[in-house]
Amino acid sequence: MLWREPLMKKGRLPSLTDYSPSRPLRIGVLISGGGSNLQALIDLCQNSSIAAEVVLVLSNVETAYGLERAQKSGIPTLVIDHSRFEGREAFDRAMIDGLDKAGVDLVCLAGFMRLLTPTFVGHYAQRLINIHPALLPSFPGLHVQQKALDAGVRFSGATVHFVDEGMDTGPIIAQAVVPILPGDDANALGARILKQEHRIYPLVVALFARNRVRLEGGRVEIVDGGQEPDAALLNPPMPSP
Ligand code: GRF
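# 5-O-phosphono-beta-D-ribofuranosylamine complex -> structure
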């Protein structure tokens, strides 16, 4: 959290000051697996009028299916296998090098299964975001669909948040609520949540592309919306049981 305090007081996104919506937002996506959220971001960039481009997909796993998704869309990929590095610091520095060479404005974690060092988090302060399959701050970490079921909560959902040095603790940008239905298991709940992840992650990236995301006192504000509803308030209608 070291970096957060002084930056938050400024109430803006200093690391994004080089970025203005007059050019497409350059996105780097970090994956370790299937990459369905990556696909949602690729689709946003390729099939909408949002000025954003996925310029690099970086995976720590050579066999991650998300790499194929990127290649099918003509997006450059980079594999950096964490097991070949002495420690997390050296691995993260290699990732920083790759992402900076690609000139990314915004780094999106999309099923990236490695913990990040303070070096990485600090380097991309306020331009590093993650999607998590629960309503944070409830259920950080792994296996969160099962944890939600075990806790007996009636609703779970998805959260897009800034990444800080904690585990799923950074300021929340957008959430979608999903009901827990009778007979749900972790897979059924996970699939329902994933559908909403694919909706809100592109929504948040679109907000960044329009330079509408601000941190004020540790909370996120969506600015300049006109008549548009605030992303944090958007929610899908309840499905019928
Ligand atoms: C998603 O559930 C995401 O919330 C979590 O990891 C999963 C990645 O899925 N961080 P995919 O690789 O995007 O399909």
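# post-check
Confidence is low (pLDDT under 50) at residues 1-15.
The pocket of 5-O-phosphono-beta-D-ribofuranosylamine is lined by residues 33-38, 110-111, 131-133, 194, 197 (CB under 6 Å).
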